[in-house]
Amino acid sequence: MSFVQRSWRRLRGLPAAAESGEDDDSAADQRPTRVVAANQAALNAGFPDNRIVNSKYTLFTFIPFNLYEQFSRFMNRYFLLIAILQLFPTLTPVNPLTTWVPLIFIVAISAAKEAVDDRLRHIADARANSRPVTVARLEGGVEGAPRVWQTIKASDIHVGDIIYLENENELPCDAVVLKTSAEGAEGLCYIQTANLDGETDLKTRLSLKDTHAMSEEALLAFTGVVECAAPNPEVYRFDSRLFTDIRHLNAYRSSPHSVPAPASLSSAQLLLQGTHLRNTAWAIALAVYTGNETKLGMNKTAPPIKWTKLDQSVNAVSAFVFCLQLLLSFSFGFGGDVVDEQESHEAWYLLVPAVRDWYDWFVIPLRMLLLLSLMIPISLKVTMDICKYSYAVFIDWDLALWDDRQNIGAHATSTAISEDLGQIEYIFTDKTGTLTENVMEFKFCTIHGSTYGSLSMPSTEHANVPQHSTWSDGELSALDDERLKAMVAEAASASLSPRGSMSASADAFAALSFFRVLAVCHTVVPATSMQAHQHARSHGAAFEHHVSAPGQDESELVYQASSPDEEALVKAAAKMRIKLLRREGSIVTISVCGSVEKYEILAVLEFSSDRKRMSVVVRGVEGPLTQKLFLFTKGADDTVLPRCLGTDSAAVGLNLEPSISADSGEAAASTAFDPSAVLGAARVINATRPQLETYAQLGLRTLCIAQRPVSEAEFAEWQKQLLAAKSAMQDRDRQLAACYAQIEQGLALLGASAIEDKLQDQVPQTISMLRQAGIRFWMLTGDKYATAVQIATSCNLMTPAPHGELLPVRGTTAEQVRASVQEHLLHVQRMLSPENRHSAALYANSEEETHRRSASDAGRESHSRSQPLPIQFSVIIEGSTLRVALEALPELFLQLSLQAHTVICCRVTPQQKAQVVALVKYDGFVPASPGDTPPPLSWSERISEGISEGWQTLRSCCSSTGASDTPFGAGSGFSRLREEESDSSDLDARFANHQRAVSRGTRRTTRVTLAIGDGGNDVSMIQEAHIGIGINGKEGLQAARAADYSVPFFKALRRLVLIHGRYSYNRTSFVALYSFHKSIYIALIQLMFAFLSGFSGASFFNSISLTFYNILFTGIPVIFYIFDRDVEEESVMTFPELYLWSQGGHAFHVRIFMRWMVRALYQAAVTLFFTLGIYNAQFALHDGTLLDQETISLVAYTAAIFVQIGNVALETHTFTWLNHLAIWGQLAAVFVLFALASLVPTLSMYSLMFKLFSDPVYWLTVLLITVACLFPLVIFRAYALGFNPNPVEMVQLMQRSNSGRLDAHRVLEPFAARGPTGSVYSATSRVYTTYAATQMTRESIGHRPASPSTPLLA
């Protein structure tokens, strides 16, 4: 090994022989950074090539790896064990094929699906790896030869290669841009990141001045060094530095001042893999991360495995059935051993050995275990997977979720969690782009203390209209205010006029400076309309707004912005004749009332969610501010105002009215400190604050605009600190933030802007309907307090007085926050006491008495007024207070929040959004970092909780008034309302118990949460929730790609949850219950036959029948239950309270499962004993064929198939032609297969079925058993519908009515009257009847959202 190579390895932190194999004991690479040497392959030998591998298997590893993965599941292991035991003839009572065939079939289906998916991944990998790429290589591959451009495959790229890119090329790896085709000191290029975040707008990247100045020949021979971070998934961070000479790196580390300082690299110089080069002829870049070590590759993680609440219930039932199976197997097995021991002498023909080995005692128990192995349905997982995939397809195909404007619909990324959509209890929503359209329109502004544009406070009648609007008919936008236009023109003319010939007021110069900051301080990229439309045609983007430059047509200039706010601000400045024309490298060109001004961007102080502001340091290149340095700032008021003059911050004076230079004739802002400037700045701030509050009350988004001059000396000193911070390889973000804060002081406040972001279509109606469905909302937004309150009120998140009350949580310390929360808890306790609740209800109802009488008759009025209307509490908390609450007292804050109908968190960060979701999801646990989960329960705690839950379940099953008896069980809907209306005097005791439970670590995921957002700042919240939904918005597709479901608009949530979620839950619940039922049913027949066979463990059915029972004969009809609808979609939308049934888990719980168990027991007994009873008196069929077990079992088996198909038919609410084909066609298929089996001489069924077909007793027996098994179900169903209907059945009755209209009061009232005294269903009926009558009254006075135009009962 050469000296250079040894030095290089030491530089990279490796032992000298680590990569050559000389040191076998070398530790794994723990380097925090990597060093990349350009054009030096030997020094980069330790890095991987650019081969992309996303596939899971190879041709040789597929079978072993896939089998290992499949048999990692408990169910598959269980059936494999059963199949292996059946290979021993002494143990198995049936042919081993009864288990091996279904097991192999199911494993093969899963393996085939995996093979197809992985094949597609292989094809995608091959396509990406074979793309041609131009790189610098030694000519002819000869060492010492000059480097030339050569075309190679993308997979052959190595770290350190120099890559040549052309326009429209896709980046094959992560690379640092060195030079571009752009002219100027800094090489500018444009990239499109649609493959990463879905944003189609162009983003700029800059090459370094040193490398951009090099010629192409110099770059071919470039041997610089890049020191960067080790591969990591942080897409927007690249803390690195570049040394133009490799020798400088060692010298810089030992003595930083002995060599030239390295050039700082950041994400502004990094071209990411998967992005496309746009509007740039060519670019030259240095590869730094390749293959799966790129930023994109590091972000490719396996999606988290999500278990639905129903899946957990199914797993619990499977465990119960397994325990029951073991109990029965060994009980009956050892019973058989006792019988054998007692009868071994009398029943000599059984050949029981006189002396038995110890293991003989386990033979019969194991035979019983194999005999009862059917109790756990082997086809359950495959059946449920098919159903879940179908639900996802239904969502993708739903035209009601299609958006014609975007030409996009809903899409289910996850195909396994649709049932959770039917059990949502809490929805966490972003505001901007989620509840609002994210289409920004500049409305008003305040400049130098004066307001421009006419204001109109929202009225009550406007606040709740379906299409939200806060503006009056006489509204005047600030951009149409002639006063403002005149002042801007006046200041622009004065700044260009000779000394003394023209002057302007301070307000005019402030207005000009205000819009100049908007036109310069941003990241917007202007493009010609031709470029924009070519970009739109090739990538599906739509550019609707055009702004012209002087002398250009109106459609010649298009602004492309990554943020709708920036686009709106730049367009607002353009409308005031201060237009952004070009961005060429660091030079920004604007037009001010026809006069061209140019500014050099010296530094960009980037926006972040923590800073909440953006600044730029500029130097005037052309125009009245030539050679003057200014700091332009825009941001949130809580971060900008504290840094302005007139506050406690250190001041640097600024006189807004420029003095006129006699020598140059150009305006120049004075930088002399003027004490009066502080007083004037304080006046501006005091005048601006109330305007900001007014804008917030209107629901507008506000930004403060400020500036200050910067001296050359100050900037030079600050720039040194900036370069040092940018060159730091450790803790760069903190150092940059401190450096930014140092210069962002003493700002002169110019004013504030107010931008309107209207609510999306039908947002208030959607939220209102979901709240009626028992779902509670939390709004998590970065907006200020007043804006959040206004939007929450407008979209029906908050209930106005007298029915609602807002509870603000305030404080900066843990003690203050605790006192605030405890005060609100005591207030809630008092207000929910019976006497206070009744008084509030009387007051609220009396207020609406006049309206009710005018819209309803006396009967309906009495129903409507008799129901108490409890106050709905809303909690609001700001980000700084929320941080204290989450860190110091999360359980106490959660206790208050769970009492509220709505919680609003404003001024929150993305991490806080995820923490709030986890707080509710994990019942008080707040993760310190993304991905953290609560500590697992110990075995003793699990056993304790299991016993407690079992006792509660037993009580609910035995009690006639238990929560499980009601259609709306504990924790959902009406029962939750009843809990809130009950006496809450034990609030402190319940909270103490909750705290003790949390301190013991007994946190459980009990509340099903849904998070919906549209931007990258919502990704952490979306991924934390049980269900994540992303909106295809204007902030890109980051949220949509990270979510389980993507939708085009917020109102899709209504259909996604109430229709798809509810149907999915109900359907899967039935599929799971029926799968257990049919398996337990056939196993119980076997078990009962064991009584008659002396506990021998003999099988009643033959092996062929058992082989095809679970999958072929009974598995196919239930799959088509995916088309079932218990009630019509219109009925669900009319009565959203029906969602409470699925939300409370009432389609799959202990009581329902036990009913199915009893049904299986009854039907098994009828099937076996009716068959044996009828054929017991016969010795032969009518043709003389002697009866044997094979013949009798076929009779029972045929009846069992009829019974199971009848069960499916009885439980099906909606019959499509596919259901008919699956159900009735299955009967025909059974007989055809029986006939074919009877034609095979080697089978035990040979010729038997033909003899049975001709025997009338056979048909009468099958018919009698089917009727006897199903008739009681029909009777019970009729009784329930007539006397104890639940709300779902009530709506079904309304749908079947011939009245022609949906008269809920007339249809439901008789059922409440006829219900037996004390019946829980009767009480529920009365509640539901009252609700229905109330809703009809509300509908008649126009308070209820419009029902579908087509009557349900047409």
Offer a concise description of the structure.
This protein has 1354 residues and is of the alpha+beta class. Helix 22 (763-772) runs parallel beside helix 36 and helix 41 packs antiparallel against helix 42. Its EC number is 7.6.2.1.
Polypeptide structure, described:
This protein has 1354 residues and is of the alpha+beta class. Helices cover 47% and strands 15% of the residues. A hairpin with a 2-residue loop joins strand 20 and strand 21 (587-592). It starts with a helix and ends in a 14-residue tail after the last helix.
Supply database-style keywords.
alpha+beta; 9-stranded mixed beta sheet; 9-stranded antiparallel beta sheet; 48 helices; disordered N terminus
Sequence stretches where pLDDT stays below 50 over 5 or more residues: 1-31, 457-473, 535-555, 649-676, 840-869, 959-1003, 1299-1354
The residue fraction in helices comes out at 40-55%
Instruction: Please give the number of β-strands.
Output: 35
Radius of gyration over C-alpha positions, nearest whole angstrom: 38 Å
User: Which overall shape is indicated by the principal axes computed on the Cα atoms?
Assistant: elongated
Q: Main sheet, how many strands, which sense, barrel?
A: 9 strands, mixed
- Rounded mean pLDDT is 77
Strand order of the largest sheet: 14-35-34-33-15-29-32-31-30
Q: Total helix count?
A: 48
Strand content: 15-25%
Structural class: alpha+beta
How far apart lie the N and C ends?
A: 89 Å
GO cellular component, one term: plasma membrane
Domain P-type ATPase C-terminal: 1040-1285
Keywords: ATP-binding, Magnesium, Membrane, Metal-binding, Nucleotide-binding, Translocase, Transmembrane, Transmembrane helix
Family: Belongs to the cation transport ATPase (P-type) (TC 3.A.3) family. Type IV subfamily.
